[in-house]
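Exercise 4. Each item below gives a protein and its sequence. For each, produce the structure-token representation.

Item: Thioredoxin domain-containing protein 17 (Tribolium castaneum).
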Amino acid sequence: MVKKHYVEGYDNFCKFIENFDSQGELVHIYFGGSKLPSGESWCDDCVRAAPVIEEALDKTQYQGHFIYVQVGDRPFWKDMNCPFRKDKKTKLMVLPTVLRWNQPQRLEGDQCEKLELLELLFTDE
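Answer:
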């Protein structure tokens, strides 16, 4: 069963990860634009990717932790000095990004809209 976690902003993400214990389970992190009052992200690519990511989690019967991180508003993200971009562990260049934490596997941009790629990413092989 997937264990979902939700984090908003860089400082909260850093605190969460610092204190997080995955107990040896897989950890995937989704980075997307923060939500507007409408409940949707300001990032159109993130809006398109979200239902596909949920479908892949369900279809693969993902066993592990899935952390949703809202990176902030558009101006914060677009700033080339955004800490998510500068962080050596996240190395974000594109939203949305889904990555396997502390591993090289990642999907970026429109790759996050491809069910087959997400299914491969969510398997533990």
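Check: The two ends are 17 Å apart (CA to CA).
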